[in-house]
């Protein structure tokens, strides 16, 4: 019978054997898989692991700090943050098609990470690439090291051949709940270990319309309020996730304070699910919905209407793009 502690010991020993006195690099996404994979490798080789965090500007409030402050404090990991916010905004300028947005974000992410990988390789600081591939990913992709499309961005499956990293995948035999237990065993913050799913393309695919700095700021503020209220109501473990979506090209008339407004709606998309393949819309308590709606329309000046998505999956997907 495997205990969580014995999984950790076993994986740390395997990683030590695989990497020897070599160096490794790992892309952190803010999510649980890459964080746990990195923490295991850090236990095994310490300073010889460098983590790279690409800030693409499409993150939610507090996510960069969670990695830069909380993850580093918990693990002592060596971290390089690449501020690529301007680069992503320029690449996304004028783009409204969902698939095009995803492609651009994925492509830019790989390019930015690739440059860091080249730099680290050139200085002899990386021959190994750490990936947070889980057992279900391995099975889905037929046992190879490739991953499903939806995750190809996050798992950085697309590094060019000529970089030739050897892969380290310490989570290959684990399911998500085991990964979370390993994360807790390694002392990672709850906010990372129990983070709900969040798409690699981030807020970029939750703005319906062109992605701009101002729209990101609006959505980030509304999203932070919804998350705060759901957490305060103790509902985090009841829902799979609750995307907040900004309908940036839609305006409606409202009245706020003394005047007429002509602002944007945001959509709340609370869903319950086992595996994201199917989902039901979550019947959130009315008082929680009311608090979220009141706060968003009071505190986020560009938003004058909050609407609720009551579509299951199928026919709707969880994300709007
Ligand atoms: P959909 O919208 O297809 O989403 O019902 C199913 C689940 O996958 C997440 N999702 C993504 N995760 N990269 C990711 O890592 C992506 O490009 C991506 N798109 C959707 C979504 O949040 C939901 O949990």
UniProtKB/TrEMBL annotation:
The lineage of its organism: Bacteria, Bacillati, Actinomycetota, Actinomycetes, Pseudonocardiales. One of its GO terms (cellular component) is cytosol. ATP binds at residues 29-35. Pathway: Purine metabolism; GMP biosynthesis; GMP from XMP (L-Gln route): step 1/1. Residues 2-195 form the GMPS ATP-PPase domain. One of its GO terms (molecular function) is ATP binding. It comes from Prauserella flavalba. Homodimer. Its EC number is 6.3.5.2. This is GMP synthase [glutamine-hydrolyzing]. The gene is guaA. Keywords: ATP-binding, Glutamine amidotransferase, GMP biosynthesis, Ligase, Nucleotide-binding, Purine biosynthesis. It catalyses: XMP + L-glutamine + ATP + H2O = GMP + L-glutamate + AMP + diphosphate + 2 H(+). Catalyzes the synthesis of GMP from XMP.
């Amino acid at each position: 019978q495997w205990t969580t502690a014995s999984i950790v010991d076993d994986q740390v020993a395997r990683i030590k054997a695989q990497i020897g006195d070599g160096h490794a690099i790992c892309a952190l996404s803010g999510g649980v898989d890459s964080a746990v994979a990195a923490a295991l490798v850090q236990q095994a080789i310490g300073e010889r692991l460098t983590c790279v965090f690409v800030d693409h500007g499409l993150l939610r409030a507090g996510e960069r700090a969670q990695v830069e402050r909380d993850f580093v404090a918990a693990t002592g990991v060596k971290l390089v943050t690449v501020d690529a916010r301007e680069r992503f905004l320029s690449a996304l300028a004028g783009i409204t098609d969902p698939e095009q947005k995803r492609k651009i974000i994925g492509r830019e992410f790989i390019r930015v990470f690739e440059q860091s990988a080249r730099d680290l390789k050139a200085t002899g600081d990386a021959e190994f690439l750490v990936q947070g591939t889980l057992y279900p990913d391995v099975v889905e992709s037929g046992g190879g090291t490739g991953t499903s499309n939806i995750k190809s961005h996050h798992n950085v499956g697309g590094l060019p051949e000529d970089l030739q990293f050897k892969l380290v995948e310490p989570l290959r035999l684990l399911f998500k709940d085991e990964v979370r237990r390993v994360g807790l065993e390694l002392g990672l913050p709850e906010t990372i270990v129990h983070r709900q799913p969040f798409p690699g393309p981030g807020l970029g695919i939750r703005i319906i319309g062109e992605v701009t700095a101002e729209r990101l700021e609006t959505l980030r503020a509304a999203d932070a309020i919804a998350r705060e209220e759901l957490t305060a109501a103790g509902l985090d473990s009841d829902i799979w996730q609750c995307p907040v979506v900004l309908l940036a090209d839609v305006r409606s008339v409202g009245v706020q304070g003394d005047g007429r407004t002509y602002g944007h709606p945001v959509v709340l998309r609370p869903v319950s699910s086992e595996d994201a393949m199917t989902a039901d819309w979550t019947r959130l308590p009315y008082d929680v919905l009311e608090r979220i709606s009141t706060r968003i329309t009071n505190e986020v000046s560009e938003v004058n209407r909050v609407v609720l998505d009551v579509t299951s999956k199928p026919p709707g997907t969880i994300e709007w793009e």
